[in-house]
Amino acid sequence: MSAAPRTARGERTRRAILDAAEHVFAELGYAESSIVRITERAGVGQGTFYLYFDSKLQVFEELVDDLNRRVRHAMTEHATDDMSRIEREREGFRGFFRFTAEHPALYRIVREAEFVSPRSLRLHYSRIVDGYIEGLTAARERGEVGDIDPTVAAWALMGVGEMIGMRWVLWGAEGASGASADPLASGTNDVPDAVFDSMMRFIENALAARGTQEGAP
Fold first, then answer.
1. For the chain, does the N or the C end have fewer beta carbons within 10 angstroms?
2. Which CATH entry fits the domain spanning 57-207: 1.20.140.10, 1.10.357.10, 3.40.190.10, 1.10.10.10?
């Protein structure tokens, strides 16, 4: 990882390079992207780039790390200590979908990481899952959720969020067969309330402690 900038100006420059890399990698893919294209978009010289990053690979890996940190913050920033686990799930998914709408590049960049930097891909998902596991384990001990395997449930929940986000946030209301099928062209949609509520009912039923589901004896 590159050294942290020592000044506020340096931090702004580094931020500009990462923001530019986000757009360039999403638009062109890793193979077709270049440091020249990134620096042109960021409005800095190539020499300035090398003050903060050693290579195209390093800026890509640090971008994945940066997006991961920011999406995890978005998923937890509205959670409070007095919330139940289901309430936390609701706020977490809302935050994730908001972030995805603002940063549709997240999907393509994470997929690229499978081939460009498998280590970064695993870290991205594992860091999100670790938070889920911790929260689900505590909720199970409090009796808020059923006798589930927190690890299995964590990966399943992450899969639900990713697929719902892809279908409604990235592809938009028309779905994969419509004009908004290109994730890079339609990253401004919201998950409809009816879809979100249906998803949360599914999750609540899946996590519920035995005997607490609606209509259960």
1. C
2. 1.10.357.10
